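Two proteins follow. First one:
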Amino acid sequence: MCGRKWVKAEPHNSLGLRSCGMGKVIFDDVRVPAENIIGKEGQGLRIALAVLDFGRIGIASVSLGIAEASLKEAIAWVKEREAFGKKLKDFQAISFMLADLRTEIDAARLLTYRACWKRDKGENYAIESTMAKLYATEIGLKAASECLQVFGHYGYLKDYPLERYFRDARAMTIAEGTSDIQRLVISRNLLR
């Protein structure tokens, strides 16, 4: 029987994702009636791993949103700000960086869509979700970081959203398995 005295929640004070209400749940001597068990006894790890596959699509999607929002802010910024007598958008290094981000974000989106498509078709999508999660989170972090850089010291201020995007993007590279874990899963699949 699950009751409050056997289950405790402890909130985390995290660097990013402050709107998510992150924390940990502690189960102490909890007994689950047979009719409330999910799946068959002994299949917990397999079920948990399947949940990770789906969760990785979610993390990839959040990362895409962070990347898109970062790029949108940077585009608006460079169209308005000036340095050395011209708009920031007219500096080739900045415009090329934004063009590369647009391309990489679209590539991450396509990887994420492919994982969703395979899931919707009822096919195994474990590797596709892993690749989408890896690439989208890395691009989300890159976009947040480079777009923050475009803002200069303003990007580091809480007055602008880039500092939050950066903090949240960093968390995405850790959630549902770090980038190194994703590489391990992909390489094991490749080399088996």
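Second one, unrelated to the first:
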Amino acid sequence: MAGTYTPLRGLATIPAVRRLIELALDEDLGRGDVTSAITLGTTRTVTADMNAREPIVAFGIDIAAAVFSLVDSRIELEFHAQDADRVDRGGLLLTARGPAAQVLAAERTALNFCQRLSGVATLSKRYADAVAGTPCRVVDTRKTTPGFRVLEKAAVLAGGCGNHRFDLGSGVLIKDNHIAACGSVRAAVESAKQKAPHPLRIEVEVTNLGELDEALAAGAEIVLLDNMTPAQVEVAAARAHSKRVIVEVSGGITLATIADYARAGADLISVGALTHSAPAVDIGLDARTA
């Protein structure tokens, strides 16, 4: 859908995201763009099309547009797609028109954001598609690029998966090191139930059926089955569901195996790879004389 750019719309209006964009620009342009300065001068203008060079789920178009706007407010921007759109190879994302030196100065930073975030959204769609037709939902983790969490988690949603905790204050998740410090699964869960705010459900990570039984006896509301096989998950999920406990599964799950875990009874499957291993997609910027 084509449209004229409104400066700093959407995610780009969040102060932390604005700071991230400014940091990225300072990283690339802190000493100026010497190549453009000595070859283009100040009077040349260009039109530049940002396009997908492979099929993608687009994300970060608003961020890329904000980059151009912050480099030079004279750059005119036209949208041809929006975040979460499925874009075929050769499809246009946006067009930038304006002073050539400024358009090219913004190019790499704009592409870095859009390639990275579209990569997350594209991989998220592949995982969401892999469990389609089951009640299971794939969610992300906190294994995000430092500073990029709000953007990467938004990209995960755009691809069709869900968000787990946004930060350590978002929910109670008792993991192996909490259990080690408390002495047992039961002790950790009971302590959490005594002290947690009433709206927060208690989730605990377990690695075997013995720990699962401890968690269920202590009143856990969600269990995270860590590094179990699909066959083990099937047994554990049936036991947990009999107590009306939600089952999350994690640990080394890939696109090749995720459907087996979904069919074994997982309600949620958390996949760190959605953010920490998503490859950047191929997006280019092709300039021509205006």
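SUMMARY FIELD: Residues 3-120+279-289 form a domain with the Aldehyde Oxidoreductase; domain 3 fold (CATH 3.90.1170.20). The CA atoms of residues 253 and 271 lie 7 Å apart.
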